[in-house]
Structure formats: structure tokens, C-alpha cells
From TrEMBL:
Gene name for this UniProt entry: whiB
Localization, UniProt: Cytoplasm
Predominant subcellular localization, coarse grouping: cytoplasm
Domain 4Fe-4S Wbl-type: 21-79
Family the UniProt entry places it in: Belongs to the WhiB family.
Protein name listed in UniProt: Transcriptional regulator WhiB
GO cellular-component term (any): cytoplasm
């Protein structure tokens, strides 16, 4: 995405000299609020941009909240971030449960030994 203020490519992780398809588009398209403008901007990203994935990662990492970046609208990126946070929280909770279960298992007394006459045929 081009910086909306000075029309220079944003200093994201794009290789030098590689520009997104939005360089040649009207920046207002990428910051429009109508459904039509969002759809049109998303199409530019998804159908014509060779740095879509890099742009999307940059937008998510940098917390870009406004506009279409990497082929996704503000709303879609917000959902991605919130699902990611939820996933991280669920994984953290599962790890805590796992640690608790392991600690409990290591504190448990060893299983009782069977009398010799019951194990001699084994
Ligand atoms: S993915 Fe979209 S916003 Fe990003 S550089 Fe390409 S055209 Fe611009």
C-alpha cells in the first residue's frame, strides 16, 4: 500500500524497487468506506499485485487498522487479529492444563507392585 500522505510506497518489507499494484491506483480507493470501493481495492490487490502476501504480513504486524492492505479490508484484518489472539489464548490455556496434569502425575505415588506369584507366569 502506498502511503496515503506522500504517495511513496510504505517502508514495509517490500524489496527495493518492487512496488505494489496500488502505486498506479487512486489511493482514495484503498481508504474508501463504501462496499464498492473496498471491493474494487481488494480486487486490485488480489488480481494484480505481486507483493500481496508481503503487504498483508506487514499490515498485520504493523497493526494497520485503516484501509485495504494485502487484499483484505479493515474488518477482515480485525477478524484475523482477533482469531489469532483467541488461538494464542486457547493454546496458552491448554499448555497450562497440560503442565498441571504432568505435575499431578509426577506427584502421584508409584503404582503398587504385584505379588510375585501373580507375575511369575508373565
Ligand atoms: S497488496 Fe494491495 S495494498 Fe498491498 S501493495 Fe499490493 S496493491 Fe498495494
Amino acid at each position: 500500500m502506498n502511503d496515503q500522505l506522500n504517495d511513496e510506497p510504505v517502508g514495509c518489507a517490500l524489496p527495493r524497487g518492487v512496488l505494489g499494484a496500488c502505486v498506479e491506483a487512486d489511493p482514495r480507493l484503498f481508504f474508501g468506506t463504501s462496499r464498492a470501493s473496498i471491493t474494487a481495492a481488494v480486487r486490485v490487490c488480489r488480481e494484480r499485485c505481486v507483493v500481496q502476501a508481503t503487504c498483508l504480513v506487514h499490515a498485520l504486524d504493523a497493526g494497520q487498522r485503516l484501509g485495504v492492505w494485502g487484499g483484505y479490508s479493515e474488518e477482515e484484518r480485525r477478524l484475523m487479529v482477533s482469531l489469532r489472539r483467541r488461538r494464542d489464548a486457547e493454546v496458552a490455556a491448554a499448555r497450562a492444563r497440560e503442565r498441571a496434569l504432568r505435575a499431578r502425575a509426577s506427584d502421584a505415588p508409584p503404582p503398587p507392585r504385584l505379588p510375585r506369584h501373580l507375575t511369575s507366569g508373565l
